[in-house]
Amino acid sequence: MRIPIVVSVVILAGGTGLGWQAHQRLAAVRQTHQQLINEAAQLGIAVDRTHPAEPVHPTKHGRENREAGVQLAAAEFITFAGEMEAFKSRGGNQLDAAMQKRLVAFIDRMMALNSSQFKALISEVGANEDINDGVRQDLIGFSIMTLANEQPQAAVARFRESRGLFTDAQIGGKVLSTSLACWAEDDPLAALKWVRHHGGKYSDLITEDTKLGMISGAAVQYPKFAFKLIAELGLNDAEHAIQGVVDAAKTDRERSATLAGLRGYLATVTDESAREETASRAIHGLALGIVREGFEAARQWLDTAQLTPAEFEFFTDGLTPLAKSADNGRWVEWLGTTLPPSQSDEKIRGYVSAWTQIDYKAAGKWLSTASDGQVKNAAICAYAETVARYEPQVAAQWALTLPVGDERDATLKQILANWPRNDQASIDAAAAFAKENGIE
Q: Any idea what the Cα angle at residue 158 is, between residues 244 and 215, rounded to 5°?
């Protein structure tokens, strides 16, 4: 199957395909395009940076230069597409440095165009008889996606004008999805109104992924409204959408706004079991995000978040150790000092077990320096039971540091249960361990 040019360009530029992810990659590119804006201006492709969606009003000479510039850009666009098509047909998948540089420069130059210039560019591409329909759709789709990064409402308008050119529903759907996602980030209410008004006409293109993209886009700045969109858009998989909203929260302010929006959304869920499951998953997601910010940042947010007891329990359930993180031990200690003993042991064991699985050396190193007490004992139990699958002798040494009693006996039995028996030597070692510790 032929890889569309628009997909090829985004992939080679560092993206993963069309859609909301492609928009995010393009957003990174725009940060470096001032030099290319200047080069475009020399060709008559000028942009009023204070009103980027408005066409420039040039003199006759300026208008002629601009029109010539757009025609030149269209010609270069088509030539570039031909080169990419030939590159793909030869089985190429890795551009050389010069081609990569040219590709990024080309994307930057495209992003310097305003809505009126994109309209002219699309018209030029649409009228060209030297390219086939597939390439034409790819080029126009890429143009609209690029415009959506800066002027999403204008991109939707350009899509409507070009709708008849998109005979491939997959490309048309992806282009509309990207445009609506970008628009929802800027003005989710306007994007929603457009879908309400035009959704019937484009029902074949407004898919579940399109709706998810709009919700993820809105969540960047308007998480409360993003939760409302979940009900408004009638998603089949609301949990996926909720996770998208949660994942968009990157700062303390955004997390607090997301939490407030989540609480409002949960109030509309009448099924108690579904409401609890949704709350658990969403707050798990918040926990994962805040852990990546570091222990101190997480603790500061928790001090102001005013979580309910149920929310706090969901949060602690969602704590997950990170590989190579210096904060894992601090989280273990925090669980021990923050939760009552009736809850802390179980949470500590779950956390240390997961930590041991991803980095048993780091977990063991922390144990060797941890202060004596019940927090350390609970951690030793989890560490020994988990590491026994790989290093049973090490596990046994740690278990024997526990105080004599039921906790130690239960850990020794679990070590025996997890002891690997891959050969006769390991079988004999397990038998010797059982005899030494009086385990039948």
A: 10
